[in-house]
Amino acid sequence: MISISSETLPEYQKFLKDQEIDGWLIYDFHNLNHFAREFLPLEPDVFLTRRYFYFLPAAGTPRMLIHRIEGEFRASTGGDYTLHRLGRVGNRFGRRT
User: Fold this and answer.
1) What's the CA gap between 22 and 59, in Å, rounded?
2) First to last CA, the chain
3) If 0-12 CB within 10 Å is exposed, 13-18 middle and 19+ buried, where does residue 42 land?
4) What is the 3-state secondary structure (H, E, C) of 17-74?
5) Model pTM greater than 0.70?
6) What are the mean pLDDT values of the chain's consecutive 10-residue runs (97 residues total)?
7) How far is Cα 25 from Cα 15, in angstroms, rounded to an integer?
8) Are 65 and 52 in contact (CB under 8 A)?
């Protein structure tokens, strides 16, 4: 399998454009998506404890969304990184849960 890198990025984006696909969202949680680990190239000893998402657009800069707790992690994929923290969410009655 060919993993994503700054060298292979244009090739993947061309494929998406040729297929008229706007982008590709890759997701993993607790290493259940083995494809994501190979494609993003993650080091074998890296274990992310939170969900992460990698969006590969047909044009533009890829983006990775990872939890703030994983802030030290950086895949060698290129693109932008956004750190997030899921907080408490209000329910439909406005009360916090």
Assistant:
1) 8
2) 43
3) buried
4) HHCCCCEEEEEECCCCCHHHHHHCCCCCCCCCCCCEEEEEECCCCCEEEEEHHHCCCC
5) yes
6) 81 96 92 84 75 90 78 57 51 46
7) 15
8) yes
Residue 74's contacts (CB-CB under 8 Å, 6 or more residues apart) are 81
Contacts of 39 (CB under 8 A, 6+ apart): 1, 3, 4, 26
- Sequence-distant (≥ 6) Cβ neighbours of residue 45 within 8 angstroms: none
Task: Spell out the residues 6+ positions from residue 85 whose beta carbon is closer than 8 angstroms to its own.
Answer: 67, 68, 69
- Where on the phi/psi map is residue 55: left (φ > 0), alpha (ψ -120 to 50), or beta? beta
